[in-house]
Structure formats: structure tokens, C-alpha cells
Amino acid sequence: MARLTALNPEEATGKTKDLFNAVQAKLGVIPNMMRTMGNSPSLLEGYLNFSGALGQGKLSSKTGGLIAMAVSEKNACNYCLAAHTFIGENLAKTDPELLHAARSGNSSDPKTAAILQFATTLTNKRGSINDEDVNLAKNAGVSEAELAETIGHVALNILTNYFNNAVNTEIDFPAVQPLELQN
Questions:
Q1: Nearest one of 1, 2, 4, 36 to 20, comparing CA atoms
Q2: Which burial class, exposed, middle or buried, applies to 129 when counting CB atoms under 10 A from its CB (0-12, 13-18, 19+)?
């Protein structure tokens, strides 16, 4: 059971209503995570702005989605796994096998694999990476701008993972089973 209320967009007021209207216009729906974040319009606005800024960066939205899969798997966020799988398959038209591989930090593309491994290492080490971790990515052709943005994507996904896990957001996408439960 959810620990915070997912606000009804019809009853929202003020800044929250404005943010909900913007999400509705962009996505056609207001997912439960955003409806729940709406309890704090500052949090919802910060999330939307950070996500939007990263969407304008060097890394493609596809790569951002793959990073989200890797980080969400590491943080056991069932909400984000479901949301990013649905978005990846249905909106971004990403091959389901690519999405599945990303959950383990893998990709058949060497540069994408290096980015996902860096993101996974960053998550596992809680940000306390070393020179070797950075050099592995750089040696695979990942630029410093891409490394910086990867850190940003990891941070954004940790925010949403922690939020959804803490408040037990009701999953409003087709459920995805964590890898550890699939064996």
C-alpha cells in the first residue's frame, strides 16, 4: 500500500496543477510517481527540470533510458523498472533485449556498455569511484561530458528509485519482475 497519496489531478491546485497540466500535455497521462511527487510541487518541479535538462545533453534519450534500467535494477525499484521498460519498448521503440541487457549493465555496443558499466559501478560504490573506474570508460571512448551526464542520470534515477521505494508508489505500468526473482 502506498505510503503517500497519489494526488487526483482533477483536484490539484496552484503550482501542482500547473505541473500536472504540463506533464499531461507532454505524456498524455500523469503517472503515479509524478502524482505522488505532486505532494511537494518543489520536488516535482525539480525532478521535471533535471530530467528535461539531461534530455538536452550529449547522451541520447535511449542511453538515458538504458542507464535508468541499470540503476533501477541495482536499487530494486519495481516502479522504475516497469515505467522504463514500458517507455523504452512503446515510446522509444528500444529493442526489449537491449533493455533487458541494460538491467545487468550490458550492451552489445562497446561505448554503451562502458557507460552502463560506469553507471553500475557508480551506483554500487555510492559515488565513491576511483581513477580506474573513470579510465575504463574513457578508454572505451566515453567523453568527459558523457561521464558527467552519466553521473547526472544515475543521480536522477537514484532520486526516483529512492522516492518510489520509500513511498511504495502504486505501479501503473505493466509489472516487471526483478532479475534476481527471474532465476
A1: 36
A2: middle
Helix axes 61-74, 78-86, angle to 10 degrees: 160
Contacts of 39 (CB under 8 A, 6+ apart): 4, 5, 7, 16
Under 8 Å between Cβ of 36 and 2: yes
**Cβ count within 10 A of residue 144:** 11
Q: Return all residues near 103 (Cβ < 8 A) that are at least 6 apart.
A: 69, 70, 72, 73, 81, 179
Site of grid cell 538504458: 66
Which amino acid would we find at residue 160? T
pTM (predicted TM-score): 0.95
Amino acid at 1: M
The architecture of the domain spanning 61-174 is: Up-down Bundle (1.20)
Question: Cβ contacts of residue 9 below 8 Å, gap of 6+?
Answer: 17, 20, 24, 30, 35
Domain spans of the chain, in order of start: 14-54, 61-174
What are the tens digits of pLDDT across the range 48-93? 999 999 999 999 999 999 999 999 999 999 999 999 999 999 989 9
- What is the identity of the amino acid at 153? H
C-alpha span between 116 and 5 (Å, rounded): 33
Q: What's the first-to-final CA gap in the chain, in angstroms? A: 26
